[in-house]
Amino acid sequence: MRRGNLPSRQLGATLIVALIFLSILALLGVTVAQTTQLEERMAGNTRDRDLAFQATEAALKWASTQNMTALSGGATINTAANDDAVFWNAFAWGGATQLTSAQITVNGLAAYPQIVVERRGTTNQYRVTSRGVGATSNTVVILQAEYTYP
After folding, report:
1. pTM of the entire structure?
2. Measuring CA to CA, which residue among 103, 105, 132 is closest to residue 116?
3. How remote is the C-alpha of 34 from its chain's centroid?
4. Which one of 41, 130, 133, 134 has the lowest number of neighbouring Cβ atoms within 10 Å?
């Protein structure tokens, strides 16, 4: 048997190149897995916020069909609050009207939404502030709507 032009011993260059490619592929795989995990968490958070938003909108819609005078309980609009998010995030929601499953049909909520109805002076104008919670209690959406009745 004739060996021809083959070297008499192997230097192992193929093994080193294969290990480098394998290391690069492993790093790429770890990066892709981390990115996928982050995107999955972002999608879950977006779904949770959408769920809280739907609950809050359902509470506003329910309130619009009710007797606002009875819901307000004589509460008038707090003009010092300036309608800002800081005020409503710090608001004591324990005294707000808590809705139930009989009033709204949004499933998967950590808690049912709450509403606060205020009357603008002696007019027939009402402001409804609704606070909804998503699937976790950390996801909160607060919306306001104003209604005028004839």
Report:
1. 0.75
2. 132
3. 22
4. 41
Alpha-carbon distances, residue 88 vs 66, 82, 101, 122, 145 (angstroms):
23, 10, 24, 23, 14
Single-letter residue type at 131: R
Per-residue HEC secondary structure of the chain comes to: CCCCCCCCCCCCHHHHHHHHHHHHHHHHHHHHHHHHHHHHHHHHHHHHHHHHHHHHHHHHHHHHCCCHHHHHCCCECCHHHCCCHHHHHHCCHHHCEECCCCCCCCCCCCCCCEEEEEECCCCCEEEEEEEEECCCCCCEEEEEEEEECC
Distance of alpha carbon 93 from alpha carbon 91, whole angstroms: 6
Chunk the chain into consecutive blocks of 10 residues (it has 150) and report each block's average pLDDT, rounded to whole numbers: 61 86 97 96 94 93 85 73 75 85 86 88 86 92 87
